[in-house]
């Protein structure tokens, strides 16, 4: 039947071709050629139609066979309950949604700490006393040495401003101006330390507050000196380069209502005190500014500050102090097992208080100040909690200090020919000095626990960076934070107790 169809199709093609030829012979030459072309095209089209029909019929047969195979496979798939796959907790499975496990960890953490808090209440009762907090700052209600020290710091601010004004006018040479700045910032560190050590009415907490204020001011005035010196150097080379300097940001950072300042127009009391109160340690002639003060944002940050202040005080009195007091006897007896137990007991409340302090200071307080001053750069911290190395943690948990160290200490050392390792060690040494300065001077004893703790970060950073990766490195960073801080706290409290209270008892 198929062969007959093919023969019939072939005969029809031949008859069509002969008819076209006869018609073409009776026409003129041009018409003949056109007719011949048309007949040829018609024959080709007819042939293509036949070929496409055969292709479609063949494709239909193949599709039918494919559908039959699919039906068979579907039946086998419906009967099958296994396929090649990995377990979810296998690292090669690609599964990463552990939200439920994270929630479980939070629930377990809350329950375990609730048990500890209830046990603390049953053993010690309610120890929270807001009035007692005042005695931490004042021994004598008529003597306020810490507050007086902070007020006196205005003298150093005005000396720095006066020096820069004289340098901009050319009344002072660069050498004399540099010497005056060095004397000013050196006295800033030694004068408050001498007052804290010599004035009996100065409490340890008041001393920490005063010395912290002076340390921040020291870093700010050092940056103020450097930036104005860079501006003078640039102005002597070419005035146009001033707008592109590191200290003078471009106009894209500012809104239309904010007027840009150029050197020496920045040497005003208003500019100086804006920098003193701004939440940054690095000076610029033109800081990025936010469009307006958001009242709702300001009130939220203020409520957070008040809430976490009360919480920090309450947890310190109710949780930390009893554990520290119960740790004195094991430390005196050098009972290693009991010392370890007290250290681990202290680790949890100490770490929680440190996390709360971080949020209170770096998020609530600094954002409150920035919003009040319309200070635009709000990056006070980065994702230090994801740190997989010690170096990454120190670079990201305190951005203002990191920027200052990078800009005014680390890069100048590199420009003077020092290697990266020497420069990094110098940065840790400077940080260790200020940690010890802020602890030993208010306590009126020098044990170097904070200094050694910071310097030990160098070998720890090398070890974690070379031998631990990923989650293991992150776990190592968390362990050093959770265990290292309470160890230093116990050492200082023990030494302070032995130095003061044991002598008084004797």
Task: Write up this protein.
It is a single chain. The chain is mainly α and 506 residues long. 75% of the residues lie in helices and 0% in strands. α7 runs antiparallel to α14, α13 crosses α14 and α14 packs antiparallel against α15. The chain is extended. The N terminus is likely disordered.
Q: Strand pairing plus helix content: what structural class? A: mainly alpha
Mean pLDDT: 80
Biggest pleated sheet: none
- Give the total of beta strands: 0
Q: Low-confidence parts lasting 5 or more residues at pLDDT below 50? A: 1-11, 13-46, 241-256
Gyration radius (Cα, Å) is: 40 Å
Which range best describes the helical content: under 10%, 10-25%, 25-40%, 40-55%, 55-70% or over 70%?
over 70%
Number of helices: 17
* Secondary-structure element series: HHHHHHHHHHHHHHHHH
Instruction: Describe the oligomeric state of these chains in a short phrase.
Output: single chain
Q: How much beta, percentage-wise? A: under 5%
Morphology call: extended
The span between the termini is: 126 Å
């Amino acid at each position: 039947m198929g062969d007959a169809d093919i023969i019939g199709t072939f005969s029809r093609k031949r008859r069509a071709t002969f008819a076209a030829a006869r018609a073409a012979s009776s026409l003129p030459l041009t018409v003949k050629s056109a007719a011949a072309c048309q007949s040829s095209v018609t024959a080709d089209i007819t042939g293509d139609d036949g070929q496409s029909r055969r292709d479609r019929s063949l494709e239909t047969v193949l599709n039918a066979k494919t559908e039959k195979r699919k039906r068979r496979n579907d039946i086998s798939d419906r009967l099958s309950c296994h396929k090649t796959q990995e377990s979810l907790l296998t690292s090669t499975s690609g599964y990463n949604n552990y939200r439920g496990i994270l929630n479980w960890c939070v629930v377990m953490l809350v329950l375990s700490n609730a048990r500890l808090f209830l046990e603390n209440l049953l053993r010690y009762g309610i120890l929270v006393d807001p009035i007692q907090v005042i005695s931490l700052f004042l021994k004598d209600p008529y003597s306020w040495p810490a507050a007086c020290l902070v007020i006196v710091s205005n003298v150093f601010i005005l000396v720095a401003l006066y020096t820069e004004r004289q340098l901009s006018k050319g009344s002072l040479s660069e050498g004399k101006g540099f010497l005056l700045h060095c004397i000013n910032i050196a006295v800033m560190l030694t004068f408050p330390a001498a007052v804290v050590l010599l004035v009996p009415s100065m409490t340890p907490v008041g001393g920490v507050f005063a010395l912290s204020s002076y340390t921040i001011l020291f870093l700010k005035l050092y940056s103020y000196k450097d930036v104005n010196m860079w501006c003078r150097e640039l102005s002597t080379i070419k005035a146009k380069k001033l707008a592109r300097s590191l200290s003078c940001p471009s106009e894209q950072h500012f809104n239309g209502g904010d007027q840009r300042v150029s050197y020496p127009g920045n040497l005003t009391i208003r500019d100086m005190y804006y920098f003193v109160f701004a939440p940054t340690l690095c000076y610029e002639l033109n800081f990025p500014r936010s469009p307006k003060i958001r009242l709702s944002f300001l009130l939220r940050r203020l409520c957070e500050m008040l809430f976490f202040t009360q919480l920090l005080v309450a947890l310190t009195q109710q949780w930390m102090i009893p554990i520290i007091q119960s740790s004195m006897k094991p430390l005196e007896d050098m009972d290693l097992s009991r010392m370890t137990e007290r250290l681990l007991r202290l680790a949890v409340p100490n770490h929680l208080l440190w996390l709360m302090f971080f949020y209170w200071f770096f998020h609530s307080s600094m954002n409150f100040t920035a919003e009040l001053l319309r200070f635009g750069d709000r990056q006070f911290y980065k994702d230090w909690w994801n740190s997989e190395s010690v170096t990454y943690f120190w670079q990201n948990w305190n951005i203002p200090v990191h920027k200052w160290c990078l800009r005014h200490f680390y890069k100048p050392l590199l420009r003077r020919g020092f290697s990266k390792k020497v420069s990094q060690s110098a940065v840790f040494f400077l940080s260790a000095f200020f940690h010890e300065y802020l602890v030993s001077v208010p306590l009126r004893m020098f044990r170097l626990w904070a200094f050694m703790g910071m310097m030990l970060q160098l070998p720890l950073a090398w070890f974690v960076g070379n031998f631990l990766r990923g989650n293991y490195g992150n776990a190592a960073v968390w362990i050093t934070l959770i265990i290292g801080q309470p160890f230093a706290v116990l050492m200082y409290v023990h030494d302070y107790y032995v130095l003061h209270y044991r002598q008084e008892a004797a």
